[in-house]
């Protein structure tokens, strides 16, 4: 029996199934550090993150840095070729996401190593981390479309072979996030439950899912029960604010029909002790710009 088959048989978080199964209660921690002194977050913030699965950090990027970052994003959007696989476009042709910006821009790479960013990731994950995935999300006024409810870990587990829930995302606002311009919504506390999804992973699923995800998303009844139990929080605030959230937290966003654009730097930190294996529910691995397999050295300041 192959190692890939054995892996699926012993999968603690089964998904992409042909029938619905009972949700799985999380058995591993959300906060991995052993001591509060291990990083910049105090006990209250760590407890809040453990309970809710998310934490807002205003002023993560200073006002003096934001203009140059916004200019840099405009440069990347203008210079990258239209057929570059790292550029994801909306059906109308506008750019939705740019992947691997930390490898394309020294300014974005500097953000990864900021004192307000890297130590938080190291503290939450209890040690050295690397960038599993990074991207710029662009949601222009009037045309920016939303992201349906999902757990990132479900995708990273099923399609990338991430074995454990030992990853954390940091979404840094480059523009003001209002309640009405497509800002991120999360279901607090949903990170404590893994919600298996129905439907086998199509071949080359990433080509479609990065525009509109249909597989690897909970059904409406599951989402209704989760919201009835936990409610919904929304990330709003000034440019430079950051939202940290657990890899298994259910989240999504509506479309932006306002004139006010919304953009963010999205960084996914994974523990060096949680490196990828074979996919649990896909035939082939996704490209490197979506799931780093070669650049897994710890990020250093």
Unreliable parts: none
Q: What's the architecture in CATH terms?
A: Sandwich
The CATH topology is Jelly Rolls
Distance between the termini: 43 Å
Number of domains: 1
Strand line-up across the major sheet: 2-11-7-13-5-4-3
Write up what this structure looks like:
By secondary structure, the protein is an alpha+beta fold. It has one domain: Jelly Rolls, CATH 2.60.120.620. It contains 9 helices and 13 strands. The strands form 3 sheets. The chain has a 7-stranded antiparallel beta sheet. A hairpin with a 5-residue loop joins strand 3 (87-89) and strand 4. The longest helix is centred in the N-terminal third of the chain and has 14 residues, at 66-79. It is globular, with a radius of gyration of 18 Å. The model has no long low-confidence stretch (mean pLDDT 92). Its EC number is 1.14.11.55. Its cofactor is Fe(2+). Keywords: Dioxygenase, Iron, Metal-binding, Oxidoreductase.
